[in-house]
Design goal:
Elements: E1 2-6, H1 12-20, E2 25-29, H2 32-40, E3 46-53, E4 57-58, H3 60-68, E5 72-81, E6 85-88, E7 96-99, H4 101-106, H5 108-113, E8 117-120, H6 124-133, E9 139-143, H7 145-151, E10 154-158, E11 167-175, E12 188-195, H8 202-211, E13 217-225, E14 228-240, H9 243-256, E15 259-267
Parallel strand pairs: 1-2, 1-3, 7-8, 7-9
Antiparallel strand pairs: 3-4, 3-11, 5-11, 6-9, 6-10, 12-14, 12-15, 13-14
Length: 269
């Protein structure tokens, strides 16, 4: 199986991909947009995508790309523990740390307490590779222990995340039509995005499609709509306890909201 992800070899997304698909052939892309393009072009069978982190919140670009990219469906989820390390050359005094912005946000207090300047980089493993191939005085990377081994760096400090509960939720996407909750098994989860009708009470009306039927929401995130200032789309996940009732809730939302994009129904982790 060919699996695409965003990042360099040794990235957390690659770790998640191999945990989900042991023995798979993994292909890293520099950006999330390129990962989506590779999947659509059939260069890979599936993509493993981070959508939210317990400390940093949602991965905005992935959620936006799910909305913007028709022809894909979500088929699986996986929650991966994140254990950040400070990587560099042995004996170096660290003054700057490079990493993906989300990773830097997850170690913010650690860096602040030590006077280390955070410097955004496009990827965690890519940051480790940069430090290994282009060493500079005082420069370190925030990445995984696996990245340190891959690029020959020292682990200067382990478990530097601000909270040991740090985890990232990944979703597996493939080409195809999204499955509806009515066709799933109890215990599944459904992901979608909707834009409420632009009138008073429309958001409440949309959410009541679920609350009046006892359907439990596990995520609700607002994202601004491009070219429509101060209007929002809502990314929503819900548990499928009863497939028939969950299908009724989705049908009610589709009849109520201005626009609904179903991403898929899949086994919950």
């Amino acid at each position: 199986m060919q699996v695409v992800y965003q990042g360099e070899p040794g990235a957390y997304s690659e770790e998640a991909a191999l945990a989900l698909f042991p023995g798979a052939s993994t292909c890293g892309q520099r950006t999330f947009a390129l990962a989506f393009e590779a999947l659509l072009a059939a260069e890979a069978e599936v993509a493993v995508l981070p959508v939210e982190n317990t400390l940093h919140g949602i991965v905005q670009q992935v959620n936006d790309l799910l909305w913007e990219t028709p022809g894909l469906r979500l088929v699986r989820e996986y929650v991966h523990p994140i254990r950040h390390c400070l990587l560099g050359q042995a004996g170096s005094e660290v003054s700057r740390a490079i990493s993906q912005p989300e990773a830097l946000a997850q170690v913010r207090r650690y860096l602040e307490d030590r006077g280390i300047e955070p410097v955004p980089f496009y990827d965690t493993a890519g940051a480790a590779r940069q430090v290994a191939e282009h060493p500079e005085p005082g420069l370190a990377a925030v990445a995984s222990r696996a990245a340190a081994a891959r690029y020959g760096l020292e682990v200067l400090a382990a478990d530097v995340q601000d909270d040991d509960s740090n985890r990232t939720r990944f979703l597996v996407a493939e080409r195809g039509e999204p499955a509806r909750p009515g066709t799933s098994q109890p215990g599944s989860k459904t992901s979608l995005c909707f834009a409420a009708a632009h009138r008073p009470g429309s958001l409440v009306e949309a959410l009541q499609c679920f609350s009046t039927r006892g359907v439990n929401l596990t995520r609700l995130e607002a994202r601004p709509i491009k070219d429509k200032p101060f209007e929002y789309r809502f990314f929503l996940d819900f548990q499928v306890a009863d497939p028939a009732v969950s299908e009724q809730a989705l049908c009610a939302l589709e009849a109520t909201a201005h626009e609904v994009r179903l991403f898929g129904t899949y086994p919950a982790f």
